[in-house]
């Protein structure tokens, strides 16, 4: 046998073996017998020597075949194993026997006690049946008695019923006959409620029997009295003086009297309308004369409107709703009454709103607007209360609409104010630019002016932002409306106000460039320069600063498209560029004009030998120097090309520009009558094309270069239109040498000046009838002298 | 493209005066007048052979003086007028005269001559326009479409109308007008309108443009401050009778409607220095040339104010055939004004640009250094306009 522990049982017929867990085995066997799975048995079966659970060698299996088992054992096991197996089996058999006995004993006992119980139950049921029979007999007796009693009492009962019916009828009739008198009395005592109650009780009966003459009389009397009563009630109602409670009672009674509710509503409302309209008129009077200043400030006006008109309106609505709407009456009346009320409220509120709007429009001061905001807040708050009372009306929406309009209008006004402030600043600058010149003092410090204007504009923007910010303060009721959360911040303040203002600055700048271009510089050039710097500053820092400030104060939750900072900056930069270009143009033109006049008005053929530099050239240098100072105040120096040390010592090659060669032409033999300076030609070939009125960079050198370019080019073109004598040429030589002495220092590339001056002298030589140049040394002497 | 490349011709002298030979409508021919104080001035007759891309030149001697302005007769190929400087006794005077060139040069058909033969030809003087009483001649304008008998010349502040009589050998002053006003008023340039039976002339002086009626010699319109600075040149739109282009020292080219002169119809600001010349194309008035002392020539396409604002109009026959096609075209109109090209072949100031009178797609420009450049309208644009 294999396997230690609880191996398979020993062979049958060997009792006495008690394997562990044997207690459970009988149940296991039973279960097996009844076809239930037995985990324990299977576990054991798994350990069977044959390893064949359920097979013929499984001693616990259903298909156990002793022969096969024994054969197998004999075949596979040694003697010692067989011995062990035998003892084991004997033990198991013994245990099974004792189990069997225990089971039989236990079940027998249970069976005995069950039999006893059934016997006892049989006895008890018999007793109960007897008692039930007894009960049924008793009940039958009782029923019989009851029937007998009711039949004896039958007659009397009918009589009593009849009598009591007659009694009731009589009492009713009596009530009817007494009704007119009672009603009269009630009316006299002013116990209207009582009277109406009586009447309403009797009304239907009277109506039913009105074909009988006696009843008709009563009915007529009653109706007369009640009509009288109704009249009195109406008067009382119309009086309106009585308290709300009385009024309510009146209406109640009138309604019970079948007075038409519609009429009552109308009457009530027309009363209320009279009073409310009187209040509105008082309000209107406070608006003051058209065109004149309002009598009271806006907060007081709104306060008065709220306290008198709106609160009375609320009272009217409340009492009306109590009287007509909230009554448990016919649905039709309620709806009709409600409709009337809404129409009434809407029409009066419309008038009120128009007054408020007129008043708001009178608010034009652009300073502190906390008063306005508070007034609007109060206005809005009170309307909320009213709207709560009467949700069907659209006052709340309209009120918000008014507030929104007021806010928009306010933003517009602030934008205008900012713009006019900016214009004022410009005017101030203009004046301070013009004033000292009259006094002959030093010209004003442009940098200071720039600082002042940019600081004051920034301050103004900041204060306007603070004012506008009041609209979105937490304690303002309308600040959580979607408009004020979103559109107001993004479209209103950011786009409408700030972006609008920045754009208008750029726009103004551009206008300066356009209007003055043709009319010859009504704008002082210094202003152009200053504005250009201002725009440039805006581009580099101010715009992003302002917008960041705005975005911080007005957290934008709206996702509508907004102008990006970059596009504004580009706008400002473009304006700055234009202004600076225009500045260069204007200054260049001023100098050009001097040069042109000086060339055009002189008779160059018959001029005398030059002794001095012409005054106009000195003037040109002076002006250029002062422009240099002016620009230097606002713009950085800029980059220069490396300068040669002998800048001022250069001499002119008079014939340098005599380009009689046609370089690209088919090679006809040129007549080439003049000396040609090949070197200069080659230089010109490779030198870059000079754009005269070209955009300049934001630095001093570039600006000055631009101005000098324009001036010298004009000089050149003018020279080419004239004819010169010998001394004319020499004068130009002297002038150009003088210019060269002084102008090179201002420009980024001194070669430019040399090139242009060369061209001038060269062109002059060409236009000269008798080209005899002056000695360079003489030129130098003249120039150094003056 | 190879044959779109500019053709360059160099003169030995400096030059300002350029005109197409207006009476010539078959060959492309320009006249250039030189400026030299020391040598005999010349008139170069430039023939351009479009097919071979070759320039043929003939040179005429103009002994009277340096040429400031030249204009060709609209009727007679051989007749031209010049304004020239006459220097005598250290006095410089600008005079004007009408000349006839030798017969064989009129149509310039002969072979390109050798240098030796080219210098011998001389202009034949027809008559002087006597200006002793009126001052320096700024320019001479022929009556357009006329028979070559009427001239207008501008002399200082005078507008002079001349009749050429006795086969142009005698110029009679038939009418004149003068500018009155403060300061020294001087006409700078003028242009004779081809519209209204050639009864209108426009002149420029300082910053103003004036229109004149040649019958009464009265001013008919006045554009004050037409340009911020000096007005340099004018031209009439050949197809729209009230349209006028002007240019000046403010670097701008402006387009005017002479019926309403308070504002220009359009302004171009593309040059970086004074604009000396503006010219409408004779057939396609959306093409406008301007030459400037920034050495550039700019060809603009001013479709929106041209006589064909919606492009070339489709004929009715075509329309019925190609209804769909036409609609397609309609949606893409109107065209935008634009700069077509900037020509940078010059290295000195350009004082004259002119369209050829024979080929509407070709123009010449002349810079001070004596360089004449012949350019064509870009082919793509040409086909766009034609098709």
Automatic annotation (TrEMBL), chain A:
Residues 1-13 have a biased composition (Pro residues). One of its GO terms (biological process) is endocytic recycling. The keyword Protein transport applies. Residues 59-283 form the Exocyst complex component EXOC2/Sec5 N-terminal domain. Keywords: Coiled coil, Endosome, Golgi apparatus, Lipid transport, Protein transport, Transport. GO terms for cellular component: cytosol; EARP complex; GARP complex; membrane. Its main location: Golgi. Residues 43-54 have a biased composition (Gly residues). InterPro entries: Cullin_repeat-like_dom_sf, EXOC2/Sec5_N_dom, Vps51. It is found in: Golgi apparatus, trans-Golgi network; Recycling endosome. It holds the Pfam family Sec5. It comes from the Eukaryota. Belongs to the VPS51 family. Involved in retrograde transport from early and late endosomes to the late Golgi. The GARP complex is required for the maintenance of protein retrieval from endosomes to the TGN, acid hydrolase sorting, lysosome function, endosomal cholesterol traffic and autophagy. Acts as component of the EARP complex that is involved in endocytic recycling. Component of the Golgi-associated retrograde protein (GARP) complex. Component of the endosome-associated retrograde protein (EARP) complex. This is Vacuolar protein sorting-associated protein 51 homolog. The lineage of its organism: Eukaryota, Metazoa, Chordata, Craniata, Vertebrata.
From TrEMBL, chain B:
Residues 7-298 form the EIPR1-like beta-propeller domain. PROSITE patterns: WD_REPEATS_1 (PS00678), WD_REPEATS_2 (PS50082), WD_REPEATS_REGION (PS50294). Pfam families: Beta-prop_EIPR1, WD40. SUPFAM superfamilies: Putative isomerase YbhE. One of its GO terms (biological process) is regulation of transport. The keyword Protease does not apply. InterPro entries: Beta-prop_EIPR1-like (IPR059104), EIPR1 (IPR040323), WD40/YVTN_repeat-like_dom_sf (IPR015943), WD40_repeat_CS (IPR019775), WD40_rpt (IPR001680). Belongs to the WD repeat EIPR1 family. This is EIPR1-like beta-propeller domain-containing protein.
